[in-house]
Specification:
heterodimer, A: about 260 residues, mainly alpha, globular, B: Rossmann fold, six-stranded mixed β-sheet, four-stranded antiparallel β-sheet
Chain lengths: ~260, ~280
């Protein structure tokens, strides 16, 4: 089980211009890439979208880790290509594979350069999230807190996963032995302990939170405040423009695959 | 025999966990590995059954280099009991849990059954054979984890922090059990911070600090030396601290266990009694 695949989505603590952008700006940028990528299955559009992100990867100093996540995506890309060969032309297969790479790149760029804490803060500032959270969970910060906690626990769970694998291998379990069905079954002794550890930990976390007075008073404050800078505004403007133009083109022209 | 030759290990993160460890482990050995948190104890344990391979040097298990043999095959001989039972328990019943290793090693069903029952009996778990391991207490789960490894009868048994979460009577039982194992010719390695447990069991002690072996020898000579014990972020056992204060009465300073302390004190007291009788 290769946990290195996740490397391409793990936050890196750097202070590059890309890292310093407001998380909301970066998220809008992701959407600005997503919208044309999903509206047009055109090879040139995909290549342009892919290339437009390359400078950001280098400025954010995450190009090497992006390459890592691409390597992990090779298998899935091949699968997408083959499946689409059967259902359409080879050109559309290429376009759809490229679309997958575009999505992979933009999400991986976002997660690699946005700290989970910033993400939580950003979520907290979105009115709809606060309203939903209050309606469902009775507390405006609950949803964003749940999200941050989940993200925060991923690396911890990865360590646990490694230990469980080690423990079961010490009992003679060989993960890559047997036919396909056997191999899938081999993972049962890994998944059950992991699941139980996660459940037990979340119960403990809930008790620890309650004993420290969570959720506390209405309107929790934050030490760090998000602030949109001029760069952010200009990127937001560009993103909105791309989204707008994409929809306009989509409704007025028919874009071919090539 | 397990032989470690100048074993060094560096994690992928660049953290150097072990540096030039030399160690021999034979049947009948009882070794306690002690040291501060992060000293490399668990890393060392994972080298013994090939879960980790040395970056430099080599580990030989009965003459086989761990880099060339599968973990499954080494686990047949080297039983490694992990610290946290939650990392390995997954079966519906305690019986199935203990049988898992035996089945993996390809034993016949009746052998598996007999072996499981015998192991549960030995660890006082027979009554839980049909219980879900998740319904047991922390200490009991830990014993199930131990049973799961013991059932395969490894020649070398490695225990990572076996005394955590065990009450004193259970610890006493564990001690007797270990004693039984190494007097049967098995090798037992115990990783622990439990100074008192080690003092009472009197194994050979290996002190690790920052990935190096800083001292080794019988428990009473290692654990009674303040400067050594401090290096591994431990404190001397109570008996050693007591006898350290009593040297002016002609008592030795390297006493760490109750048994030897009792013999020495009885001697001194009866001498004193005789002297009082003579004086009066």
């Amino acid at each position: 089980m290769s946990l290195r695949t996740l490397e391409g989505f793990k936050f890196s603590t750097l202070k590059t211009p890309v890292h310093l952008l407001d998380p909301r700006t970066k998220f809008l940028l992701v959407i600005a890439v997503l919208v044309p990528a999903l509206l047009f299955a055109n090879i040139y559009v995909m290549i342009a979208l892919l290339l437009s992100q390359v400078p950001l990867l280098f400025v954010g100093k995450v190009a090497r880790r992006w390459a890592l996540s691409l390597r992990a995506g090779v298998f899935l890309s091949a699968l997408i290509f083959v499946v689409n060969l059967f259902t359409g032309s080879y050109l559309s297969a290429i376009a759809l594979t490229l679309r997958f790479l575009v999505l992979l790149t933009s999400f991986s760029l976002f997660f690699m350069t946005t700290s989970p804490d910033d993400l939580g803060l950003a979520l907290d500032r979105i009115g709809a999230v606060r309203w939903l959270s209050r309606r469902w969970l009775g507390y405006p910060n609950a949803l964003s807190f749940t999200f941050t906690t989940a993200v925060r626990l991923v690396p911890t769970l990865a360590v646990d996963a490694q230990t469980v694998v080690d423990a079961q291998r010490s009992r003679g379990l060989e993960l890559d032995k047997g036919n396909l069905l056997k191999r899938v079954r081999n993972y049962i002794p890994i998944l059950i302990p992991l699941l139980l550890i996660a459940i037990r930990r979340s119960l403990e976390l809930a008790e620890a939170l309650e004993s420290r007075g969570f959720p506390g008073k209405e309107g929790r404050t934050s030490l760090f405040q998000l602030k949109l800078r001029p760069v952010d505004y200009s990127i937001i403007a560009v993103s909105l423009a791309i989204i707008g133009i994409s929809f306009w083109v989509y409704f007025h022209y028919k874009i071919p695959v090539l | 025999m397990i032989t470690l030759e100048k074993v060094s290990f560096t994690y992928r993160s660049g953290q150097r966990a072990l540096q030039e460890i030399d160690l021999n482990l034979e049947g009948g050995d009882f070794i306690a590995i002690m040291g501060e948190n992060g000293a490399g104890k668990t890393t060392l344990a994972k080298h013994l059954n090939g879960l980790l391979k040395p970056s430099q040097g080599r580990v030989l298990v009965d003459g086989e280099d761990t880099r060339k043999v599968s973990v499954a095959r080494l686990s047949r001989k080297v039983g490694l009991v992990f610290q946290n039972p939650d990392h390995l328990l997954f079966s519906e019943t305690v019986k199935d849990e203990v049988a898992f290793g035996l089945k993996n090693f390809g034993f016949a069903p009746e052998v598996v059954h007999n072996q499981v029952m015998r192991t549960l009996e030995a660890l006082g778990l027979s009554e839980y054979a049909e219980t879900s391991p998740f319904l047991l207490s922390g200490g009991e789960r830990k014993r199930v984890a131990l049973a799961a490894i013991l059932a395969t009868e490894p020649d070398y048994l490695i225990l990572d922090e076996p005394t955590i979460g065990q009450d004193y009577q259970q610890k006493e039982r564990l001690r007797n059990f270990i004693l039984q194992l190494y007097s049967q010719g098995k090798a037992v390695v115990m990783i622990t911070h439990d100074v008192e447990f080690v003092a009472e069991s009197n194994p050979k002690v290996i002190l690790l600090s920052q990935g190096r072996i800083v001292a080794q020898g019988p428990a009473d000579s290692v654990l009674s030396k303040d400067e050594l014990v401090k290096k591994a972020s431990l404190v001397r056992p109570q008996m050693s601290r007591l006898f350290g204060e009593l040297t002016k009465y002609g008592l030795p300073s390297d006493v760490v266990d109750v048994h030897r302390a009792r013999i020495l004190l009885e001697e001194k007291l009866s001498e004193a009694k005789v002297r009082v009788a003579q004086n009066s």
